[in-house]
Amino acid sequence: MLLRVAAVSFLAVFSSSVARAEAPARTEAPYFEVLGGDPSVDALPLQSTHVETRIVGVIAHVTVEQVYVNRGTRPINVRYVFPGSTRAAVHGLVMQVGDRRVRAQIKEKQQAQREFDQARADGKTASLLTESRPNVFTMNLANVLPKDRLSVTLEYSELLVPEGGTYEWVFPTVVGPRYVNGSEPNADFAKAPYQHEGELPHATFSLDATLSAGMPIQSLTSPTHPITATWTGKSAARFSLTPDASAGNRDVVVRYSLLGASTASGLLLSQGDGENFFLLTVQPPARIPTNDIPPRDYLFVVDVSGSMYGFPLDTTKALLHDLVTQLRPTDTFNVLFFSGGSQVLSPTPLPANPKNLERAEAMISKASAGGGTELLPALHHALSLPRQPMTSRSVIIVTDGYVGCEREAFTLIRDRLDQANVFAFGIGSSVNRTLIEGLAHAGRGEPFFVLSQAEAHASASAGTSRRRCSPT
User: Taking burial as the number of CB atoms within 10 A of a residue's CB, which of 183, 200, 338, 425 is the most buried?
Assistant: First the structure.
C-alpha cells in the first residue's frame, strides 16, 4: 500500500557516539541550512543527485539517490529542503553511511520527530523526512561525522494523467520562494533557503528512465532538457538526460503521446508471487466540437505581483492575448489583475465584441509587476463579481503560484462550486504545481503549465477547447 507523507514521517537512525558542537546558525547555501554550525569549519554540500524512473502505462516508479559529504572537521546537523512531485506516494527511504545501511520506518509525524530529537541528543546519526508543504519535503540529518559520505535513497510512485492524448512526467528540482503575509499557517516556511535565479546548481544531476506505454508511442520529447532516447519497440523506450551542468536548476518535464485519433487500447501484464495483475489503457477520441458548446462567461484572474516581473509577465501577456482573442461573439468576459490589491476591467461581464476585446488588450499590454501576491483577497473579489444569468462561468487563474495559502484557496473555490469552475495556468519553469493543480482540481477544471513564451499559444488553444467542454 502506498502512503502519503502528510501525517507520517520517515525516520532512520544510526548509533554512533559523537560530541555536540554549538555555534550560531547560518545558511550555508541555497537549499542547505547547517544547524548550530560554524561556517569556517562546517560544510555538507550535496555532491550528486541521480534519478531512476520506470514508467509502466500510467504509473511512474521513481528512485532518487542523493549523496552528501561532510567536508568539515566535526559532526554537524543539517536541514535540506527539496521539492517533490505533487502526485507522489512515498514508500521508501534508505540511508547509508560507509558500510552502515538502514531502511527508514514510517511513523506518525509527532512520534518520528520525538525519536529524531532523542537520537540527535544521544549523538546518533539520524535522518528524518517530512512533508513541509504539499509538494515540498524537508530532510533533517543529525550528527553527520567528519568525512562521512552519506547516501539517501528515496522511492515513490505517482499516477500520470493524460491531457489531450499527451502524457507528462515531471521531476521537480527547484523549491521557489513562497510569499506569505505573516498570519498564514506555516509562515516560517517562507524563510527556508532556496536556489536563486541564475545560479548554477552546486551538485551534479543525472536521470535515466524506461517507458513501457502498452500502446504505440507517437512522440517522446522534453521541453526543458535535451534527452537521448533509444527505442526498444513501438511501445517502449529508454531515455536519459544529455549531460548538462545546469540540468538541476529547473524542473525536468518529459512528454509522450500515443497513436490514434479514435479510441485505442493497450494491455500490460505483470506476474506476481501470489497473484497476477494487468493494466488496461484506453485512449479516448477527440473532444466534442466547439460548435456544440453553449455560450460561456470567462473571468481571467491574473497575477501581476513582483515574482511575475520579466519573463513570467511577458509570457502571461502572450497567453492572455491568445485566450482573449479566441473568445466567441456569444461569450462574455472580464479581467482582474491582482498583487497586493486588485484591479478589474469592468464591474460587470462584457460581451466579447471587437470594442471590448480592444479594451482588454490595452489593459493587458499596460500591466506591470510589483507588490505581494495576495491571492485569497483576489479570489474573494473575483467570485463576488456579478455574472450573466443562466450562463456557466469559468474562472481562469494565471500565476506562478508562489504563495503560502494553498489550503485556504482550495477551500474557498470548493465552497463556491455553484458559482464557477476553475482552470489554472502556471507560468514559468519551476511553478508551484501543488497550487496550480489544486486550484483546478477544487474547481473541477484542468491545470495547464506554460514553460516558455513559445508555448503560450498552444496552451491557450488547449485551454480554450477544454474550458468550453467543462461541466455547466
Answer: 425
Taking 70 as the pLDDT cut, the residues of the chain under it are 1-44, 80-83, 132-135, 164, 174-202, 245-246, 259-264, 284-292, 460-472
pLDDT digit string, tens, across residues 257-271:
876 656 667 788 888
d(CA 98, CA 357) in angstroms, rounded, equals 65
| SS3 assignment, position 10 | strand
Residue 297, classified by CB atoms within 10 Å of its CB into exposed (0-12), middle (13-18) or buried (19+), is: buried
Residue 378 shares a structural domain with residue 448? yes
Structure-block grid coordinates of residue 190: 517562507
Domain annotation covers residue 395: yes
Residue 464 lies in a domain: yes
Distance of CA 189 to the CA centre of its chain: 17
- Asked if 464 and 325 touch (Cβ cutoff 8 Å), the reply is no
Angle, helices 375-384/406-415, rounded to nearest 10 degrees: 10
Q: Check whether residue 393 and residue 248 sit in a common domain.
A: no
| Neighbour count for residue 324 (Cβ, 10 Å) | 20
As given in the structure block, the three cell numbers for residue 128 are 528524518
Percentages (nearest 5) of helix, strand, coil residues in the chain = 20, 40, 40
H/E segment holding residue 97: strand 89-97
Residue 41, sorted as left (phi over 0), alpha (psi -120 to 50) or beta, turns out to be alpha
CATH, residue 416: 3.40.50.410
What pLDDT score was predicted for residue 104?
75
Q: How far apart are CA 169 and CA 349, in angstroms?
A: 38
Nearest to 338 by CA among 394, 294, 395: 395
Q: Do residues 15 and 59 share a domain?
A: yes
Q: Is 468 in a helix, a strand, or coil?
A: helix
Per-position DSSP letters for 148-168, written without gaps between them = -EEEEEEEEEEE---BTTEEE
Q: Which one, of 401, 394, 304, 312, lies nearest residue 343 by Cα?
A: 304
CA pair distance 207, 209, nearest whole angstrom: 7
Q: With 0-12 CB in 10 A as exposed, 13-18 as middle and 19+ as buried, what is 132?
A: middle
d(CA 275, CA 307): 52
pLDDT (0 to 100) of residue 19: 35
pLDDT at residue 16, as a whole number: 43
Of the three residues 212, 234, 257, the one that is the final residue of a domain is 257
Q: Given this model, what pLDDT does residue 197 score?
A: 55
Is there a contact between 207 and 222 (Cβ–Cβ < 8 Å)?
no
Residue 1 lies in a domain: no
Total of domains in the chain: 2
- The x, y and z cell numbers of residue 4, run together, are 502519503
- For cell 555555534, the residue is 23
Q: What are phi and psi of 386, to 5 degrees?
A: -65, 160
3 state DSSP class of 91: strand
